From TrEMBL:
Domain HTH lysR-type, chain residue ranges per copy: 1-59
Keyword DNA-binding attributed: yes
Keyword entries, A-Z: DNA-binding, Transcription, Transcription regulation
GO molecular function, one term: sequence-specific DNA binding
Protein name per its UniProtKB record: LysR family transcriptional regulator
Length: 297
């Protein structure tokens, strides 16, 4: 029977598929980590990884140990949650992965409110323009713009949100009027870098038949700032408009998009009462915040 520390190191290497990546996560020197892995393989009398220049890939024995190690990890999570002092308040650390728009315009005030009510709670927001891998424990939970269908995940719809074309007042004053969608062909567009759109739901301009994007970024907040500075016309979240004075919706009735946010969790975490309570609070607060901000847009 291996101790938890051995399994913890093994899981980090298996998920990162490299000693350097796991070392950064664990704050261990890669050489030291390599020796620990070698010792674990010796103790088990089995090769757990196939080592190559491309990284560490699990062997069949490694895959079997991975299943047992993840079960032990979940048991540790449940045990820690069970021995915490009974309280109506949440505590400990929770990490949320979220797309850029949600992370910039919604989560700061929502999480500030939750922490104010739970002083012992630490919330970490990881804002990345990509899909999070919960199996590798990159986050305790993630917010996505589409519902994944693969993996051992639990998905809850949070809320719908709306998007419209928008531009700054200064841009609209200096350029030809936009009275119909066809007029966009003579205007400068702001949007995503086409080959960095990580989810089909984010290809707003593609859906409108617009191919060229003169001002582009993989960040929603950067796009909003570009539009606010008179860069051009782009699709923006209605909930971002209260944070961008001078930016106004155009062709509001002709071009109107609806998308959804989903809360995604690892299936094993359903038994973690602390995470479940936090998820309920997060969903309720996000629904309320989206509705309040869209009402101001």
């Amino acid at each position: 029977m291996q101790n938890w520390d051995d399994l913890r190191l093994f899981l980090a290497v298996a998920r990162e598929q490299s000693l350097s990546g796991a070392g950064k996560q664990l704050r261990l020197d890669p050489a030291t980590l390599g020796r620990r892995v070698a010792r674990l393989e010796k103790d088990l009398q089995a090769a757990l990884f196939v080592k190559s220049p491309q990284g560490y890939a699990l062997t069949e024995a490694g895959g079997q140990l991975m299943e047992r190690a993840e079960a032990a990890e979940q048991a540790m999570r449940v045990a820690r949650a069970g021995v915490s002092a009974p309280s109506d308040r949440l505590s400990g650390q929770i990490r949320i992965g979220a797309p850029d728009g949600c992370a910039n315009f919604l989560l700061p005030q929502v999480c500030a409110g939750i922490v104010a009510e739970n002083p012992g709670l630490d919330i970490q927001i990881v804002a990345l323009p990509r899909v999070f891998n919960l199996s590798r424990r990159e986050a305790d939970m993630a917010i996505g713009v589409s519902a994944p269908t693969a993996g051992r995940l639990v998905v809850q719809k949070i809320t719908d949100y709306h998007l419209h074309l928008a531009a700054s007042a200064q841009y609209l004053q200096a350029h030809p009027k936009i009275t119909q969608q066809a007029d966009l062909q003579s205007h400068r567009l702001v949007g995503y870098i086409p080959d960095m759109i990580f989810d089909r739901e984010l290809d707003y301009l593609g859906d409108l038949g617009e191919a060229r994007v003169p001002l582009a970024s993989n960040s929603v907040s950067v796009q909003v700032h570009m539009i606010q500075q008179g860069g051009g016309v782009g699709v923006v979240h209605d909930f971002s408009l209260p944070f961008a004075p001078g930016v106004q919706k155009i062709l509001e009735h002709e071009v109107s998009l609806t998308r959804s946010f989903y809360l995604i969790r690892h299936a094993d975490d359903q038994r973690n009462l602390r995470l479940s309570r936090f998820a309920d609070q997060l969903i309720t607060a996000l629904r309320s915040e989206v509705a309040a901000l869209e009402a101001k847009a």
